[in-house]
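Regression test attached.
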Amino acid sequence: MGLATCWFMSTVEREAGEVARGLRRRDPSLIDDLIQQYQYRLFRYLLMLTGSREEAEDLFQETWIRVLEKGHQYQQRWKFETWLFTIARHLAIDFIRRRQPQSLDALLQPTGANRPLELADTTSSSAFDQAFQGEEAASVATALRHLPPSYREVLTLRFHEDMELEEIARVVDSPLSTVKSRLYRGLAMLREWLKDISA
Amino acid sequence: MRDDIHERALQLVDKRQVEGLSAEEHNGLEAHLESCSQCRKQGSETEQALRALRLALPQFDPTLVRTTQMRARIRACELIENAARMRALWISCTLSWVLGVVSAPLLWWGFEWIGHRWAISRAVWMTGFALSWVAPAVVAAAVIAWRQARGSSVTEPR
């Protein structure tokens, strides 16, 4: 068990090292591979964060350009996806700030009049319904529309990305207790909405 | 008291998904769920909600990847070219600084000799010496500013 863990860790570190070296060289084929590898995960995260397909697509492209520009800052001791999602999140926050100037605290609040991190009109049926297909997916899309973006964000990092709570706290730049409380509340809201929809 | 047990069980149902449970908590919860249909229902609803969330995959436009890859390649080329240009600039700046430092005593001696030869006041030839030092940097800065202004006027939309 210990040997297997060691082997796994060394493989992960070796891969992260290759990514770090490739990013420093600005190797175009490495970037191509990374875009291919993380396409769904990054897009899903951005869609959850912004609630808007168009904004998610714009931010998707900008995130990879930023990865290229800041690639020399990436260190192999970090997990690549954690670094990638952190960049994507900062870009999304910058984007919202440019459109609706307000304080960072207001942006990160999960509730309130401003509906922070909400780029699209999430009360309309367009934002998620266009992005998700299938009957069950449509129910999830409806439920997600009613969740604050900061809850959607932690839910996707935990249950889609299977990230550890500490990693999520690093990505969303919040204390562990905040991450946990958002997860518990988000999960409860999701369950209630899905129950209502199926009823 | 009974409500407390159910409330605790429901907390553990969520904790199992969010943080994971200790062996003791797991056993306690399993024992309770076996005997309580209401909490078992809540447990299965939570699992269903998460299963639905995991299975809900957003539609993805495949052209987005190709467009992004193309933009990234173009940007990578620009960054590599810029880096080469900056390297050349740094090398020439360093060389220019070294040559300036090495030649400073000679230049000083030259200005001093001219000052004595044509009886120019000390303040004037010293100003000449200082200008000869800053002139290349001023000219270089002016050229860069001119080129940047020209570049931005070319790229500005009409």
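Expected vs. actual: identical. Chain A touches chain B at residues 26-28, 31-32, 35-36, 39-40, 43-44, 47, 57, 60-61, 64-65, 68-69, 130-134, 136-137, 139-141, 143, 155, 158-160, 165, 180, 183-184, 187-188, 190-191, 194-195 (CB under 8 Å).
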